[in-house]
């Protein structure tokens, strides 16, 4: 796509190009769609972009992302700009029905008018695909869209983005990207019982059997240890020395952030690492003390680590840059939620492959080789070694994840 | 082979045999379901939980191939091929018979993965084993013939003989001094000796090498992956406890 557009640009005579604001708007809209990661939910088949059909598992039931190509019968062909704007900013579809917030309109509502307009211009240029999607698969009473009226009252404020005059343009650009188009909080902020963003902002949350980690500047459980360069490297290439994007984040990097401009990625990194968007009282906490070396789980885990993990992650947890993440002083290991850690040890993982790093490294599965106790002990060891400190992992947590994985 | 014109120089194939087997190959190649090469495109597929693990042998599951009598004879053999001494327990205690039994019950036992059709020729030593007998057949025939021999010559089954007598019989087998009827005694001895060593030194996961006894004896560190931190260290005890595919005792949380 990228190359094609560049090629098309090169073909246009300079005068025509300068005059063609329409083309620029559409191209800008295409980039907005990348920033917003529309494809994550609306594209199943790369040959039929935005034709819908990705099932979204929510705690309330399954929703299927609709067809947003300009097809008249099954897409947005009969919508006008005002309809589209209402969907993006108010969560209301053409004819007045309520959208479910799996569509992140609580984030998109912050979008600037021009961005919505350009995005709409771009969507008009997508090839129409006839694909009738029955979006609402929720069970009663959630299937009644009117319930969203009450939900919106409690969870949705419909405000627009306001730049902070105290902050630099770059930080404000980062804030806009993170809070609005990037809708990072959709996964990284805990949700209340209604599925609205509820707990401490960006403090991490469960999503599709993975843990979307804490992205506050906390050094122990957040990304405060990461440099701006490391955060940009992660979003652009799929990994850095601490982590490789896996699970739902792999999709995000694949469809979206690897294609962001470097300026935008640095703006995001500065905003997130500055802590400008979060209340320090919510994240600035003292780390706990690690468990003692003679703790029975830690000791057993140290032997398992040496025999099974140290070959790649190295005996002192240092890892190998570019291929084996370092485990030492790695905040991802310290989170209270252990879903991703247990999942990756049991099932292995193939993180995202990007244009920058086309060969995705992989972690092998250990479910066949390590018992529930073994996994609990080795994770307890790495969570309490080399600068890490976190509560012990129990065998029953591992057993639960094993059951989840086997049923997937 | 009665037709004189077809007689080939000793040891070679007749022209008719050669043509016949080539035709069979051609038919085999074009038949549906013939083996096909795997083709990979892009990156190889990756699936969560995927592995190529073998199920650990359950040593309490009873004999899978041997009869009780055969098992007793094999126990009596492996106990003498690897006797208990100052260095280690015996091959019997280490589980060599369990290892051999499970191997014979699996793909190895019926030569599932070998070409086992004629013509069977004696072959040169360089050509290796040319016997038409599968390992299962070698044990079944050989063990029965061995007991027959012992009853005739020594008045008791092999397992009931004294240690010295068993050593003597095994030496005679090795030297081809005993005729076992339907199987060459040296061929029989060699397969038992080889499988016993395999059972003693293979990963305990496969039923032998109990508690990694042979690895401890040798100082072999087991199923490990990376030695970069040790490769420069010479002539010292590295203190590496052997580890099996299934782990080692230190993996259990103590206290």
From TrEMBL, chain A:
It is found in: Cell membrane. Its main location: membrane. Coiled coil: none annotated. Gene3D superfamilies: Cytochrome c-like domain (1.10.760.10). InterPro entries: Cyt_c-like_dom, Cyt_c-like_dom_sf, Cyt_C_IC, Cytochrome_c-type_DH, Membr-bd_ADH_cyt_c. SUPFAM superfamilies: Cytochrome c. Keywords: Cell membrane, Electron transport, Heme, Iron, Membrane, Metal-binding, Repeat, Signal, Transport. It holds the Pfam family Cytochrom_C. Residues 1-18 form the signal peptide. Residues 24-127, 169-276, 296-386 form the Cytochrome c domain. This is Cytochrome c. The lineage of its organism: Bacteria, Pseudomonadati, Pseudomonadota, Gammaproteobacteria, Oceanospirillales.
From TrEMBL, chain B:
It comes from the Bacteria. PROSITE patterns: TAT. InterPro entries: Gluconate_2DH_su3, TAT_signal. It holds the Pfam family Gluconate_2-dh3. This is Gluconate 2-dehydrogenase subunit 3 family protein. It comes from Halomonas dongshanensis. The lineage of its organism: Bacteria, Pseudomonadati, Pseudomonadota, Gammaproteobacteria, Oceanospirillales.
